[in-house]
C-alpha cells in the first residue's frame, strides 16, 4: 500500500497553490558514465556554479527544444533547477504544510530542496510529491532552491521496458557507444512533462477521498471514505451539492453514504442531452485549531459488463472513439492547455464519445475535462512493449503492481474512467504471461471493485494466455497493413474470423482497440495504394463493414489508431513519425477525419 493520498492540488479558503512553471536552468550530464552530477554533487550548489546551463521550459520534453541532436537523443541524467520565493506567511505559520509536487517527469527523478534530498520517484506519467515545510523554515529569508535530476534510461524492470546495448566493435563504433532498444512505437520523450507546484494544506488536512457511486430508480448513492492526516480529534462534515450549488445531502464522519433523490446521472457525450453531470462533494474537517476543505467533483454512474455488452447506467454503451498520445511539435509530451482544448474540440467535432490513454496515464487535467464533457476513458498504465521474456520476471511484476497502485490512487474518483488497461500488446503468448496477468489483474481488481480490467492484445486468440482474466477483450489488428500489405480484399474474412475466435475462446465483449493505416497527408492514388489518404479511407471502410455486422452480437466498440500523427524513434517504417493519424500532428484533418466524423455521428444516433 502507498503512503498517503494524491489529491489533485486545489485552492480553497484553507489551501493555496503556486505554480513553478516557466524557465528553469538545465544541464544534461554528458560525462561518459553520466554520473558527474552525483560525483560532484551538483545539487549542493547552484547549478550555474558547477558548469554551463541553458534555459529550459517547464513543462515540456527537453528533446525538441534545441538544435542539438545529442540532446534530442540524450539518454541519462539531466538536471533542472530554479529558485523560488516562498510567501513569508507560509513560513511563519507553523500550522501550514508546504508540499512540492511534480505532475510527472520521465523517467526516474530525484528532488532536492536547498541541497537536501526530499524525494525520489520511479516512473513517468504519474505525480509525486514531498512535504518541505520544515526544510524551508530552516532558512526562512533565502529563496528556496529546487533541483530535480531526471533520468530517462529504460531497463527490463522499468515501465515501459527497454535495454541499453553497448556496441563494442571498435572498428565500427567509437568508445562507449550505446543505443537504447525499445519495443514500443513512440519517441521516448523525457524531462519534466507536467506542472511543478508548491501548495499548502493545514497541518491537519484531508489527505485522501474515495467515492463509489450507485443508483436505484431515481435515487443515487454516493459512498465515501475520507482520510485525514496530521492530527486527531477532528470533525468531518461532508456536503453534496448539485451543479447549481444547491444542497443535496450531507453526512459526518470518515466514511458513509449520501442519498441523492431525483438523481441526475453522469452520462457520456452524445448518449444524453446533459452529459457529464457533476455534483460537488465538499469535505470539511476541523479540530479546535485547524480547518481544511477540499471539494471533489462527483459523477454518479455505474459500470457493468456482461458476456456481450458494456453497460453504463445499465444501458449498452458503444465506444466510438480514438487512441491518443500526449504528443505535439516542439513540446513533445509537455502539458499544454491550447493543445488539450483543441483536441477536445476536435474530438467533439468528430463525434467521439471515448478514448484510450494509449500508452500511459495522461495528465489529470485531461481526465477532469473528460468528467465534465462526458468523454469516456479507458485508463492505460505505461505497461507497453513487454515483449522480452525477461520483462515477466518478479522484479518487473512488482514494479508493475506499484504503478497500478499509483494509477488507481490518482484516478479512482473520475467518473469518466470506466476501465483500467494494465498493458498494451505484451507477449501474452509466452508461458509466464499467464501468471503475470492473473496477478496483475487480480491486484487491480482488489484496488478497485467498481471497474472492469483489461489489457490490450495483438496476439491471435488461440495463442493468448492472459485473456481468461480480462473483463473485455481489447484486440488490436492491422490487417492489410503489416500483413498482406496492400490487400484490402482480405479484411472481411480475416477480421470476422479473428473476432469469432476471440469470442469463442472467452465469451467476452470485444473492442477493436486499434486499427488503421499510415497516410502521408496530401499523397493521393486511385485505386488506393498504401500511404495515400485513399488507402487509409478504404482500409477504415472495410473494417467498418465488419464492425457493423458484429455490432449487435458481442462487438462493443472501435477506437481508431490514431487520433493524430505522432513522433517515434527513427527507423525505416517511420517517415518522421507514425502517420496513422486521422489528423496531422498539427491537428489538421486528413480525408479519414471526414469519413470517421460521418460514421461517428451516425453511430451516435443509432446507439446513443
Ligand atoms: C500497435 C501499437 C501502437 C503502434 C501501432 C502502429 O499495435 O499498439 O503503439 O503505434 O501499432 O502504428 O504500428
TrEMBL record:
GO terms for molecular function: beta-glucuronidase activity; carbohydrate binding. It catalyses: a beta-D-glucuronoside + H2O = D-glucuronate + an alcohol. Residues 18-202 form the Glycosyl hydrolases family 2 sugar binding domain. GO terms for cellular component: extracellular space; lysosome. Residues 204-301 form the Glycoside hydrolase family 2 immunoglobulin-like beta-sandwich domain. Residues 303-604 form the Glycoside hydrolase family 2 catalytic domain. GO terms for biological process: carbohydrate metabolic process; glucuronoside catabolic process. Inhibited by L-aspartic acid. Its main location: other. It is an enzyme of class 3 (hydrolase). Plays an important role in the degradation of dermatan and keratan sulfates. Belongs to the glycosyl hydrolase 2 family. This is Beta-glucuronidase. It comes from Astatotilapia calliptera. The gene is GUSB.
Amino acid at each position: 500500500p502507498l503512503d498517503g493520498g494524491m489529491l489533485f492540488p486545489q485552492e480553497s479558503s484553507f489551501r493555496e497553490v503556486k505554480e513553478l512553471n516557466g524557465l528553469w536552468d538545465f544541464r544534461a550530464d554528458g560525462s561518459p558514465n553520466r554520473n558527474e552530477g552525483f560525483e560532484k554533487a551538483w545539487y549542493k550548489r547552484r547549478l550555474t556554479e558547477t558548469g554551463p546551463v541553458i534555459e529550459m521550459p517547464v513543462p515540456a520534453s527537453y528533446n525538441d527544444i534545441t538544435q542539438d541532436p545529442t540532446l534530442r537523443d540524450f539518454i541519462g541524467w539531466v538536471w533542472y533547477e530554479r529558485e523560488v520565493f516562498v510567501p513569508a506567511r507560509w513560513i511563519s505559520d507553523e500550522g501550514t504544510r508546504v508540499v512540492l509536487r511534480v505532475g510527472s517527469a520521465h523517467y526516474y527523478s530525484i528532488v532536492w530542496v536547498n541541497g537536501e534530498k526530499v524525494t525520489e520517484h520511479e516512473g513517468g506519467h504519474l505525480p509525486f510529491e514531498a512535504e518541505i515545510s520544515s526544510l524551508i523554515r530552516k532558512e526562512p529569508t533565502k529563496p528556496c532552491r529546487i533541483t530535480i535530476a531526471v533520468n530517462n534510461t529504460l531497463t527490463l524492470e522499468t515501465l515501459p521496458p527497454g535495454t541499453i546495448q553497448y556496441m563494442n566493435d571498435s572498428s565500427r563504433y567509437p568508445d562507449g557507444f550505446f543505443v537504447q532498444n525499445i519495443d514500443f512505437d513512440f519517441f521516448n520523450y523525457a524531462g519534466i512533462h507536467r506542472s511543478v507546484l508548491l501548495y499548502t494544506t493545514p497541518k491537519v488536512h484531508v489527505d485522501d477521498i474515495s467515492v463509489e457511486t450507485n443508483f436505484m430508480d431515481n435515487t443515487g448513492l454516493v459512498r465515501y471514505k475520507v482520510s485525514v492526516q496530521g492530527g486527531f480529534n477532528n470533525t468531518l462534515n461532508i456536503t453534496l451539492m448539485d451543479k447549481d450549488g444547491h444542497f443535496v445531502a450531507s453526512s459526518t464522519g470518515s466514511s458513509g453514504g449520501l442519498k441523492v433523490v431525483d438523481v441526475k446521472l453522469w452520462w457520456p457525450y452524445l448518449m444524453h442531452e446533459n452529459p457529464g453531470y457533476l455534483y460537488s462533494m465538499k469535505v470539511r474537517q476541523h479540530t479546535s485549531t485547524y480547518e481544511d476543505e477540499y471539494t471533489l467533483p462527483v459523477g454518479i454512474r455505474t459500470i457493468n459488463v456482461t458476456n456481450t455488452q458494456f453497460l453504463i447506467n445499465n444501458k449498452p454503451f458503444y465506444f466510438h472513439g480514438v487512441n491518443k498520445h500526449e504528443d505535439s511539435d516542439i513540446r513533445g509530451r509537455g502539458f499544454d492547455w491550447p493543445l488539450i482544448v483543441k483536441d477536445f474540440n476536435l474530438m467533439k467535432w468528430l463525434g467521439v464519445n471515448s478514448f484510450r490513454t494509449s500508452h500511459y496515464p495522461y495528465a489529470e487535467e485531461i481526465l477532469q475535462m473528460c468528467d465534465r464533457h462526458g468523454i469516456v476513458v479507458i485508463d492505460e498504465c505505461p505497461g507497453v512493449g513487454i515483449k522480452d521474456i525477461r520483462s515477466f520476471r518478479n522484479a518487473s511484476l512488482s514494479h508493475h503492481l506499484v504503478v497500478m497502485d499509483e494509477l488507481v490512487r490518482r484516478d479512482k474518483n473520475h467518473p469518466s474512467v470506466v476501465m483500467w488497461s494494465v498493458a498494451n500488446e505484451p507477449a501474452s503468448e509466452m508461458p509466464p504471461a499467464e501468471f503475470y496477468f492473473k496477478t496483475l489483474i487480480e491486484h487491480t481488481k482488489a484496488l478497485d471493485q467498481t471497474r472492469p480490467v483489461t489489457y490490450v492484445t495483438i496476439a491471435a486468440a488461440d495463442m493468448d494466455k492472459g485473456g481468461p482474466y480480462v473483463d473485455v477483450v481489447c484486440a488490436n489488428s492491422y490487417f492489410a497493413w503489416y500483413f498482406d500489405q496492400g490487400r484490402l480484399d482480405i479484411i472481411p474474412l480475416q477480421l470476422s474470423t479473428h473476432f469469432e475466435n476471440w469470442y469463442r475462446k472467452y465469451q467476452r465483449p470485444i473492442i477493436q482497440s486499434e486499427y488503421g493505416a499510415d497516410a502521408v497527408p496530401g499523397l493521393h492514388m486511385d485505386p488506393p495504394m498504401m500511404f495515400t489518404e485513399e488507402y487509409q479511407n478504404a482500409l477504415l471502410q472495410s473494417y467498418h463493414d465488419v464492425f457493423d455486422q458484429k455490432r449487435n452480437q458481442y462487438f462493443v466498440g472501435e477506437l481508431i489508431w490514431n487520433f493524430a500523427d505522432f513522433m517515434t524513434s527513427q527507423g525505416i517504417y517511420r517517415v518522421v513519425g507514425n502517420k496513422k493519424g486521422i489528423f496531422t500532428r498539427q491537428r489538421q484533418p486528413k480525408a479519414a477525419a471526414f469519413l470517421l466524423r460521418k460514421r461517428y455521428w451516425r453511430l451516435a444516433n443509432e446507439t446513443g
